[in-house]
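Private note to self, pasted from the team thread so I don't lose it. Backbone tokens:
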């Protein structure tokens, strides 16, 4: 049990640092990259990879055997710590360090959402309603960031459940 936590905390801290460094680079280069589809796909794969690597490392440390619960716990703790660090950083970045970046990000999200809606042939009235709702939300404020954190935890928990089904390996019963 202690091994699971130790490994997961280490991998979670590494994930958090990676997410913060990546966000800092994107912030310095071009904020609109945060809304890029490829950025999202790559981030999803990296975050999932860290959770899976944590569970596999834990399995290896436990002699090649790990229960579903232990595997999921390693994955979950890794993701939880990584996203918690990243969320705190994002709250500070957009609400203390550079409050103007919050508006730039909101505009980038609106632009990206409108382009996607138009691509799928959404009616103008529906697009206008969507834009109004997006403008009213404070997605990059502390509450919006925390909501995003919770959504990420739920999504990656599903990934973790699936991964843990594959990673688990119970000890054989003695005869």
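Design output:
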């Amino acid at each position: 049990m202690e091994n699971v936590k130790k490994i997961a905390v280490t991998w979670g801290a590494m994930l958090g640092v990676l997410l913060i460094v990546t966000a800092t680079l994107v912030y310095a280069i071009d904020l609109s990259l945060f809304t890029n589809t490829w950025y999202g796909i790559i981030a999803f794969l990296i975050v999932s990879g860290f959770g899976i690597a944590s569970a596999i490392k834990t399995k290896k440390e436990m002699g090649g055997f790990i229960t579903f619960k232990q595997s999921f716990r390693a994955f979950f703790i890794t993701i939880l710590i990584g996203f918690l660090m990243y969320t705190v950083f994002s709250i500070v970045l957009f609400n203390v360090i550079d409050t103007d970046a919050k508006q730039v990000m909101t505009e980038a999200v609106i632009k990206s959402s409108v382009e996607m809606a138009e691509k799928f042939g959404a009616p103008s009235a529906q697009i206008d309603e969507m834009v109004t709702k997006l403008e009213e939300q404070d997605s990059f404020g502390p509450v919006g960031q925390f909501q995003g954190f919770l959504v990420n935890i739920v999504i990656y928990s599903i990934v973790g459940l699936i991964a843990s089904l594959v990673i688990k390996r119970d000890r054989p019963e003695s005869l």
